[in-house]
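Its record is set out here:
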Amino acid sequence: MESMSALALSVLLALVSAVAYAAGAIVQERVASTAPARPYAPLRHGGWWAAVALNGLGALLHVGALAYGPLSLVQPLGALTIVFALPMAALFVGRGAGAVAWRGAIMASAGLAGLLSLTGTAGAQSLGGGERPVVAVATFGGVAVVFLVAQRVHRAVVRSILLAAAAGAAFGISSVFTKSVAVDWTASGGLAGPGGSLPSLLAVAGLATAGMLLSQAAYRGAGLAAPLATVTVVNPVVSAAVGITLFGEHFRYGATGTALALGCGVVAAGGLILLTTERLGGHTGTSHGRLPAAGSQVRVPGQRPRTANVTEAVTGTVPQTATPPALR
C-alpha cells in the first residue's frame, strides 16, 4: 500500500510538473509576441520572470516525482507538456490550435513517451572526471554552432525550430550533469569541493541559462506548439543518448525494443515535421500571411499605394525604400 501511495504521488507530481512547464511555455510565447525587441532576455517584462518561476517550479516537481517513482514512468509523463499546453493556451489566452497542430503534438508526445518507456537504466552512474569537460565543451560548442546557423536563417519558423533544438540540447545535457552531481552527493555525503562537483554545478547553471534564453527566442514568430514540441522532444532524447553511450543504459527487450524505439523516434519526428510545416504554411508570404497577387494594390505604411509586380507575387516580398520607425 505504501509503495502504491508513493507511485501515485510520483504520477501526481509529474503531471503537475508538466502543467507548470506548459504554463511557462505559454507565458514565454506571450512575452515573445509583446516584447520582440528583446528576444532572449526581456528582464524588465514581468511575464518573463513569471515564466522563469513556472519553469523552475516544473523542474522542482519533476525532481520530486523522480524521488518517489521510477524514471521509466516519470519521464514519459513529461511528454504531456505539449498536450497540456494547447488547450491551456486556447482557454487562457485565446490561442487555439488547428487540427494539424493537434495531430503533430499528439504524435510527438506519443513517440517521445514510447521512446522513453523503452529506455532501461543501468543504476546510479555519473560522468567521469575526464568526461565532464569534454561533454561540456562539446555541448556549448554545438549549441553555439546551431545558434549561429539560426541567425543566418531568414524564415522565422525554421530559425525558431533551430533555436528550440539548441535549447533542448542544453536542457538535456544540463540534466545529465544534474544527475552526475546527485550521484556525487550521495556517494560523498556532500559537495566534493572546487575539484569535484562545483564545475559540474557551474555547467548546470550555464546550460540551464542558455536553454532558457534560447527557448525564449524560439517562441518569437513561431507560435507555441512547434518550439515547445521541439524542446520537449530534443531534451530527453539528448539526455537518453548520453545515457546509452556513456552510462551504459539500454533499450528494453533487446533487438525488439531497439526496433520499437526507432519506430517511436520516427513518430516523434513526424509530429515535429507536421508542427513545422503547419507553421510554415501559416507564415508564407507577407507579414499578414498572404501573397500579393500580380497587379493588385500593395500598401506599405509610410508609402503611397502601388501595383504589385510579378516578382513580388512569386516571392511574397515587398521592397521598401524606407522603414517607418514604428516597424523597426
Notes: The chain has one domain: 2-282. Residues 284-296, 308-328 have pLDDT under 50 and may be disordered. The two ends are 62 Å apart (CA to CA).
